[in-house]
TrEMBL record:
<dbReference type="InterPro" id="IPR011989">
    <property type="entry name" value="ARM-like"/>
</dbReference>
<dbReference type="InterPro" id="IPR051341">
    <property type="entry name" value="Zyg-11_UBL_adapter"/>
</dbReference>
<keyword id="KW-0833">Ubl conjugation pathway</keyword>
<dbReference type="InterPro" id="IPR056845">
    <property type="entry name" value="LRR_Zer-1"/>
</dbReference>
<feature type="domain" description="Zer-1-like leucine-rich repeats region">
    <location>
        <begin position="193"/>
        <end position="334"/>
    </location>
</feature>
<comment type="subunit">
    <text>Interacts with the ELOC-ELOB/Elongin BC complex. Part of an E3 ubiquitin ligase complex including ZER1, CUL2 and Elongin BC.</text>
</comment>
<dbReference type="Pfam" id="PF25013">
    <property type="entry name" value="LRR_Zer-1"/>
</dbReference>
<dbReference type="Pfam" id="PF22964">
    <property type="entry name" value="ZER1-like_2nd"/>
</dbReference>
<dbReference type="InterPro" id="IPR000225">
    <property type="entry name" value="Armadillo"/>
</dbReference>
<dbReference type="InterPro" id="IPR032675">
    <property type="entry name" value="LRR_dom_sf"/>
</dbReference>
<protein>
    <recommendedName>
        <fullName>Protein zer-1 homolog</fullName>
    </recommendedName>
</protein>
<keyword id="KW-0677">Repeat</keyword>
<dbReference type="InterPro" id="IPR055142">
    <property type="entry name" value="ZER1-like_C"/>
</dbReference>
<dbReference type="InterPro" id="IPR016024">
    <property type="entry name" value="ARM-type_fold"/>
</dbReference>
<comment type="similarity">
    <text>Belongs to the zyg-11 family.</text>
</comment>
<dbReference type="GO" id="GO:0031462">
    <property type="term" value="C:Cul2-RING ubiquitin ligase complex"/>
</dbReference>
<feature type="domain" description="Protein zer-1 homolog-like C-terminal">
    <location>
        <begin position="401"/>
        <end position="748"/>
    </location>
</feature>
Length: 813
């Protein structure tokens, strides 16, 4: 199982400082520019971590706002020291590099920083005397500068800045530079002249750069140990140059088979040349190549027995001449990866889970087009078979999704894979920390990429988590995202259905503060708009029913949300739905449950006091829909209205006495042993109807409800009744002269059911207060008798759970 090891103190402090820059490390100068406090000195270990974590937070955290002058904190090398920093995406601009130009950088990785222009090329010169490693991968515009063409005023009005390619920049003066990555550089950059001043390159990446003459590489034949020529259209001339680089330990000539057509075909002869001439080779990547000649031995000639990495047994004939197994061999999307004996400790390919995971690991950072296809293979493994390296797979997919937040293919395949990697089958193997990371990247995907497939996959993945518990750390954010998805203009029914399900689950078992906050986000209004749209289409489907159920949950003991429901024509929608869908039992139950919540709010009950509404509620008393539930909920609504007394009955028809008679008749028709499709977490709204004589029928409904629940589900509801002080109320009601005899009998029965129940739910017998020798003692001093021994127990604690859980649904795949 994955570890739930807490974050290190360094990580926690770094995160806190970055989220509170002007209160910890710096202060605001002129309310805009950050400046480091004068009494602070930070060593390189801390400065590097601050910058790299800052980049990570900007790219991955939703609630982190970048500061425009962040890099100015590191402008003075006397108080801060930067040595190794990795910057990526559009976060970095010219002025940011300019702010740190005085630092003695040893390692600078700039990945896909497309906002950098030729101004940053000049800034790079500031680091020339110290820089050892430099990556400009994907910085397509860094070799462009703005030029204002003289004498072309009319053109300048249309295009004030013209982009021109810088051709005179070289790496002159970068005497210590050993590692250089120019991958995906813009066409037209004169690579040969650019690199000529570098005397001792050890590693060079020219991915995606096309050059017909590679002879310039030979100037580093005695120093170059790593060469990457991914997606370069090779020729025999290139191969002749490569085999002269006798110090190479890593060679990558792989390609993306789907991106473009390449004339070059890899042959058995070429592979043999690599093995013969490059004696130090430890890593070779030939992924994506079409093998022109048969490089593999026949099945009949293959060594029998277990899979071997020994070169002498290799199924790839040229590699039998290797002196030792390769550390890595890239064979992704080649036929060779399916052979039996491959002389390498780690192989990327598509044969099995291990090869696929190796491919994702090797290509994630710089090759999203390959990574997405590898993740798609992992998706099939997780869906059809069983993933044996779950934790590794999850971490790799999370990394890919973080690294390529705006890449459609990565987001689609990654979110689909996460759905299967987080299902219940694998849950026990995942730590809380890991599952939170999954939730973070899922929400990032929903936030960053408004694409139907991504949204659907992300919503389905969230269904694999315990809701709301596992989503509570991102509660506000996930609700906001789901509400945006539920915009009625969207036409994808499947996404709406899943999103409504999630919304319902999120408000089902949370405290009232959470419900009120979500209501203010527009939850109630959004659900009403969904219902209105379905009504116009005359469709009562799961989205319609789930929307009413969600409203039932969010209005539970939250008067503000109840008022919002009324203010936005909720009652009209209720009547219209009742009329349009008279046979939909689940719909009726959800609507009546919601109106029960509204009726519990004394200030809102006058809005229900109309002839139309009271007549509808009265007629629903006779409904047999969903067992007794619709009739029961209708009677609950009327019970609270009756509780306000005769003077609040402001209508002529129907008369109060008539409605009372129908309520009595309905209650008497219910089976007291009915099993219920409802889940109470608090009896407070019911209990307040007991100690009163204004409305005996309301009192009777409340007593029936309690008696039914404690007799059918005693283990669950007897402790709740005791904890919320229901037992004294029932006993007092039995003594009331205004209470009807049948009500008293029911109250007596409920009291007897719970008289011997421990409120903790443990099932042990409890002494009732009347039995105590010292009835004046506080309830915390009561004694529980169990198995002839006694132990102190507190019966006076109030349950933290407020509100009632409403019916939900089984998750459907």
């Amino acid at each position: 199982m994955a570890s739930d090891t807490p974050e290190s103190l360094m990580a926690l402090c770094t995160d806190f400082c970055l989220r509170n820059l002007d209160g910890t490390l710096g202060y605001l100068l002129d309310k805009e520019t950050l400046r480091l406090h004068p009494d602070i000195f930070l060593p390189s270990e801390i400065c590097d971590r601050l910058v790299n974590e800052y980049v990570e937070l900007v790219n991955a955290a939703c609630n982190f706002e970048p500061h425009e002058s962040f890099f100015s904190l590191f402008s003075d090398p006397r108080s801060t020291r930067l040595t190794r920093i990795h910057l990526r995406e559009d976060l970095v601009q010219d002025q940011d590099l300019e702010a740190i130009r005085k630092q003695d950088l040893v390692e600078l990785y700039l990945t896909n920083c497309e906002k950098l222009s030729a101004k940053s090329l000049q800034t790079l010169r500031s680091f020339s005397h110290t820089l050892v490693s430099l990556s400009l991968f994907g910085c397509a515009n860094i070799f462009y500068e703005e030029e204002n063409p003289g004498g072309c005023e009319d053109e300048c009005l249309v295009n004030p800045t013209c982009q021109v390619l810088v051709k005179d920049f070289t790496f002159e003066g970068f005497s210590r530079l050993r590692f250089l990555n120019l991958g995906r550089m813009i066409d037209g950059v004169p690579v040969e002249s650019l690199l000529r001043p570098l005397n001792s390159l050890a590693a060079l990446d020219l991915s995606g750069i096309q050059t017909s003459d590679a002879a310039f590489l030979t100037q580093w034949k005695d120093s170059l140990v790593s060469l990457v020529l991914y997606n370069m259209d090779l020729s025999d001339d290139h191969i002749r140059v490569i085999v002269q680089l006798h110090k190479l330990r890593h060679l990558d000539i792989s390609r993306d088979r789907l991106s473009s057509y390449y004339k070059f075909k890899l042959t058995r002869k070429v592979l043999s040349l690599f093995v013969q001439k490059l004696g130090n080779l430890m890593s070779l990547d030939i992924s994506g190549h079409m093998i022109l000649e048969n490089c593999s031995i026949s099945k009949m000639d293959e060594e029998a027995g277990q899979t071997s990495i020994e070169p002498s047994k290799s199924s790839i004939m040229p590699f039998r001449a290797l002196k030792r197994p390769l550390q890595f061999l890239g064979l992704f999307e080649t036929s060779l990866c399916r052979l039996t004996h491959i002389p390498a400790y780690k192989v990327s390919g598509d044969k099995n889970e291990e090869q696929v995971l190796n491919a994702i690991e090797a290509y994630t950072e710089h090759r999203p087009e390959i990574t997405s296809r590898a993740i798609n293979l992992l998706f099939d493994i997780a869906r059809i078979e069983r993933c044996n390296q779950l934790l590794r797979a999850l971490k790799l997919v999370i990394t890919a999704l973080k690294c390529h937040k705006y890449d459609k293919n990565i987001q689609v395949t990654g979110s689909a894979a996460l759905f299967y990697l987080t299902n219940s089958e694998y849950r026990s193997e995942q730590s809380v920390k890991l599952r939170r990371q999954v939730i973070q990247v899922v929400l990032n995907g929903m936030e960053s990429y408004q694409e139907v497939t991504v949204q659907r996959n992300c919503c389905l993945t969230l269904c694999n988590f315990s809701i709301p518990e596992e989503l509570e750390f991102q509660y506000r954010r996930v609700n906001e995202l789901l509400l945006s998805i539920l915009n009625p203009t969207r036409q994808d029914e499947s996404i709406q259905r899943i999103a409504v399900h999630l919304c319902n689950a999120l408000v089902c078992q949370v405290d009232n503060d959470h419900k009120e906050a979500v209501g203010k986000m527009g939850f109630v209004v959004t659900m009403l708009k969904l219902i209105q749209k379905k009504l116009l289409d005359k469709i009562c489907d799961q989205v319609m029913e789930f929307s009413w159920s969600a409203l039932w949950n969010i209005t539970d003991e939250t008067p503000d949300n109840c008022e919002m429901f009324l203010n936005f024509n909720g009652m009209k929608l209720f009547l219209d739905c009742l009329k349009e869908f008279p046979e939909k039992q689940e719909l009726h139950r959800n609507m009546l449950g919601l109106l029960g919540n509204v009726a519990e709010v004394k200030e809102l009950r006058p809005q229900l006091m109309t002839s139309q509404f009271i007549s509808v509620f009265s007629n629903l008393l006779e409904s047999k829909a969903d067992g007794i539930e619709v009739s029961y909920n209708a009677c609950g609504v009327l019970s609270h209205i009756m509780f306000d007394g005769p003077e609040a009955w402001g209508i002529c028809e129907p008369q109060r006495e008539e409605v009372e008679e129908r309520m009595w008749a309905a209650i008497q028709s219910w089976d007291i042993n009915s099993r219920r499709n409802i889940n109470y977490r608090s009896f407070e709204p019911i209990l307040r109807l007991l100690p009163q004589g204004i409305s005996p029928v309301s009192q009777h409904w409340a007593t029936w409800a309690l008696y039914n629940l404690v007799s059918v589900y005693p283990d669950k509801y007897c402790p709740l009744l005791i904890k919320e002080g229901g037992m004294p109320l029932l006993r007092d009601m039995i003594k009331m002269a205004t209470a009807r005899q049948e009500t008293k009998e029911m109250a007596r029965g409920g009291s007897q059911h719970c008289a011997g129940t421990c409120p903790s739910g443990c099932g042990a017998p409890v002494l009732g207060q009347a039995q105590l020798p010292y009835p004046d003692l506080p309830r915390s001093c009561w004694v529980r008798i169990s198995g002839g021994t006694s132990c102190a127990t507190s019966l006076g604690t109030t349950s933290r759970l407020r509100g009632r859980k409403r019916p939900g649904w089984t998750k459907k795949k």
